[in-house]
Amino acid sequence: MKLGRFVVEGLDGPVQRICMVLPEQNRVIDLRAAEALRLQAKGATREAALRYASTVFPESMSAAIALGQQFLDTAAEAAEKNGADASLAMDGLKWGAACDPSVVRDGLTFTKHIRQFHERMNVTPQPALLEIPGYFKGSPWTVIGHDAEVPWPARGQRIDYELEIGWVIGSRANNITPDTALAHLFGVTIFNDFSARDLQANEFAIGMGPTKSKDFAYGIGPWITTIDEFSDLNAIKMSVRVNGETWGEGDSSEMLWTPEELIAYVSIGDHIQPGDVIGSGTMGDGSALELGRSLNPGDVVELDVGGVGVLRNRIGQRPEESWWPERRDPFM
Fold first, then answer.
1. pLDDT digits (tens, 9 = 90+) for 101-132
2. Spatial distance between the Cα atoms of 55 and 74, rounded to a whole number of angstroms
3. If phi over 0 gives left and psi between -120 and 50 gives alpha, with beta otherwise, what is residue 252?
4. Which residue range or ranges hold the Fumarylacetoacetase-like C-terminal domain (predicted)?
């Protein structure tokens, strides 16, 4: 099953609607509308049907996933009974981010990318990369969806994409182990960890992890494919195109740390929540940095992940100069 969110304009502003996505038919099913119609056919009033349907299919994908199997069962039944009457053509839809995670987490697991990234950044890989599946935490407030424009970061000059798989968490977990981690995995999406490489180099020197080099945009979408549709998480085809030209191709086979190990490690002493998205780390040749290239305003980036689809975003224009900290000299 493929599940996403599209945006409609309401009286109080934009509203997110959860939908079942049928790419091969070029349509989506508005699940809230389909469920309301199903309930009305069984005798519910329109008002009561909408109240119930809005609970099962709220604006938040994370809240819907938290309902567990009831969410998927109701989606399947509503689509089967009234999907035809609640369908919309995909053409012209405004997409929201496929998920609204409580926190962004992004790993570093692809061996080829690790090697090439460190070579380009002129730094030596740390032995700790072989000891733990490292990851960083980012802002959930800058998550964007399919076809959204990527805001150019303040003071950034060298902008990059990063082709990653997004592991979508299905149930709350704490201190789990790899052998049980897959039971907590809801599905797979595409994760674009946009980066400002010039800012990133400066932040690396501080040693506290990335901030402004990352927290201007995280692409998540175009939708989520539920985990039952994948037979092998280590054989997912991946590619990236910029302005229609293929810049990188590969698959998920070269992960140093498995999805199960990454998810389990994140849960140690912490709590993963339904709808959280954990980035797999960038595929080898999955960033412009590895090719000695970078992005320009107006460039269109398309990340293609087998079994999911294509996440497309356009790079925005450079902003006007804004406030930025001035260098301090403690010995003045």
1. 999 999 998 988 888 888 888 778 888 888 99
2. 11
3. alpha
4. 103-315
Same domain, 77 and 126: no
Query: Could you give phi then psi for residue 241, rounded to 5 degrees?
Result: -125, 140
Which domain covers residue 11, as residue numbers? Answer: 2-89
Q: Please write the tens of the pLDDT for every residue from 260-299.
A: 999 999 999 999 999 999 999 999 999 999 999 999 999 9
Which residue in the block uniquely carries the two structure tokens 């692409």?
219
Average pLDDT over residues 160-183: 98
Based on the domain organization, do 155 and 264 belong to the same domain? yes
Residue finishing a domain among 60, 89, 118: 89
Question: E strands along 172-255, which residues?
Answer: 185-193, 195-196, 218-226, 237-242, 245-251
Pairing of β 300-305 and β 195-196: unpaired
Q: Three-class SS of residue 153? A: coil
What does the angle CA 213 – CA 98 – CA 31 come to, to the nearest 5 degrees?
Answer: 165
The total number of structural domains in the chain stands at: 2
